[in-house]
Amino acid sequence: MKNKDYKKLLDKEKTVKRNGMHSFHRYFGKLIPAIPAFAIKTFTKEGDYILDSFCGSGTTLLEAKNLNRNAFGVDLNPLAVFVAKVKTTKIPKEKVKRVWEKLQADIKADGRNYSNEKDPYCVNIDHWFKDFAKNDLLKLRKNILELPKGEIKDFFLGCFSAFLRGVSNADPRHVFPGYSKRLRKLDAEGKRTIDVFASFERAVKKRMEYLEVLPENNAKTKAFASDSRSLPKEIKNVSLIVVNPPYISSIRYLETMKIEMGWLSFIQNQKEYLTLDKRVVGTERFYKSDLEVIDQTGLFAVDRQVKKLREAGNKKMAKVVSQYFNDMKKSIGEMSRVLKKGGHIVVKISDSTVRGEKIETHKHFIEIAKENGLKNIACFKDSFDENSRSLLTTRNSYSGIMNHDWILIFQK
Ligand SMILES: C[S@@+](CC[C@H](N)C(=O)[O-])C[C@H]1O[C@@H](n2cnc3c(N)ncnc32)[C@H](O)[C@@H]1O
Asked: Is-contact 34 13, C-beta < 8 A?
């Protein structure tokens, strides 16, 4: 098949109506489900194993489940992995409904005093939550945490994380948490009502409906809070890998989810947060001393650009770029290792502009893949989806203007 044939198949997938479960939880940089759906239908059969080693909130995993394929997901962000698990776990609605009724009754009967309850890890919590909302949230969270361990409890914790932003002062329209002018104005005029329990009820009811459309099948899904540069041993012999890795210094993924991660105890202090953030591929977080060691990537054009950035006094960006490609070399090496012979990899990636230097990331990925025994069988442009608008603005300010992504297909 040629590029245009693959593109046609992908475009056709874009017209298919998707499972509501994809909207379970916000996540920035989400794949459009059409990409994994197209890849899965084109390159695999039922029962095959699929991997997304930068799985984020689990779009690939959910599409695999929908199409009765087994899937592995890996992401550094434990909250993303948790959301991916919740989104792919089928639970009979009746069971959830019973627990929901009990949870509501427990909350109503809960006369405990929450004003002295320990706050979750959240820098400046009083800036992000009104006092009464924080107390209601502490009560709600406590009652969910007291449910028996298991998938129903996780479902409610997932709902808690998903609705949290809507009852905070962080504007849900913004990628990064921020108490916007818009929200401040609404608050000053008394036009915003925050009702924690009523909002949670709406959030739960909507998500119980999503659960209903999740198919009942034998497809297994396993998501790991782990590193794509060194994949867990259990992952092997996969037939297809679908990924959209981070872009060079694109989005500070962890920062976008910091409030939710604190409330769900995935991070308990600043040190844990910084340690995790330093490991993100594409990170801009370096110690000053790190900037003195800039490793070659072995990619001729990249090393030349890195040298240029350094010579222009831009040590930090030189480090960001070289580290990014060295990390992606490890990640692509790992993908190749766990892929079956004959298996495919579908990558969505965008080029970047760093301090005026255009970096053709997609071409470098092809070079790296070749070094790892992968044949590039297709490479075509895919225009941004309307839904990625918010992301587009962020990408523009960080890494230069991009108005299309690249879809790369490899075969081992
Ligand atoms: C573009 S997002 C993927 C979004 C995902 N496809 C979805 O639909 O939600 C890139 C992801 O890479 C993850 N990531 C960054 N560095 C990583 C690493 N070293 N190992 C695993 N995941 C990493 C980030 O946490 C982020 O979730």
From this structure: yes
Confidence of residue 176 (pLDDT cuts 50, 70, 90): confident
Binding-site residues, ligand 1, Cβ < 6 A: 27, 29-31, 54-57, 59, 74-77, 80, 227-229, 244, 246, 253, 279-281
Judge whether 70 and 234 are in contact, CB under 8 Å. no
pLDDT in tens, 26-48: 998 899 999 999 999 999 999 99
- 304 Cα to the center of ligand 1, angstroms: 27
Q: Which of 60-64, 108-112, 383-387 has the lowest mean pLDDT?
A: 383-387
CA–centroid distance, 82 to ligand 1, in Å, is 13
Residue extent(s) of CATH 3.40.50.150 domains in the chain: 3-87+222-249+284-411
Q: pLDDT value at position 178? A: 83
The pLDDT confidence band at residue 233, using thresholds 50, 70 and 90, is very high
Closest residue CA from atom 1 of ligand 1: 29
Query: Could you tell me which of 356, 354, 353, 351 has the C-alpha nearest to residue 366?
Result: 351
Give, for ligand 1, the residue of 57, 251, 281, 350 to mutate: max count of ligand atoms closer than 8 Å to Cβ: 281
Q: Could you tell me if 35 and 29 are in contact, meaning their C-beta atoms sit under 8 angstroms apart?
A: no
Task: Record the pTM.
Answer: 0.94
Integer CA distances (angstroms), 18 to 21, 34, 144, 185, 257, in order: 8, 9, 29, 36, 24
Residue 358 in 3-state DSSP? strand
Between the CA of 53 and the centroid of ligand 1 the distance, in Å, is: 8
According to DSSP, the residues that pair with 358 across neighbouring strands are 353
Helices (H), 14-112: 34-43, 59-66, 78-87, 93-109
Write the CATH number of the domain with boundaries 3-87+222-249+284-411: 3.40.50.150
The candidate with the shortest Cα–Cα distance to 407, out of 351, 327, 354, 356, is 351
List Cα–Cα distances, 147 to 14, 157, 164, 181, in angstroms.
39, 10, 19, 38
Give residue 220's pLDDT band: very low, low, confident or very high (50, 70, 90). very high
pLDDT at 139 exceeding the cut of 80: yes
- CA-to-CA separations, 294 to 72, 104, 351, 368, in angstroms, rounded: 33, 56, 21, 19
DSSP letter string over 217-271? ----EEEEESBTTB--TT---EEEEEE-PPPTT---HHHHTHHHHHHTTS--SHH
Residue 402's pLDDT is 61
What one-letter code names the amino acid at 74?
V
**Atom of ligand 1 lying closest to residue 29 CA:** 1
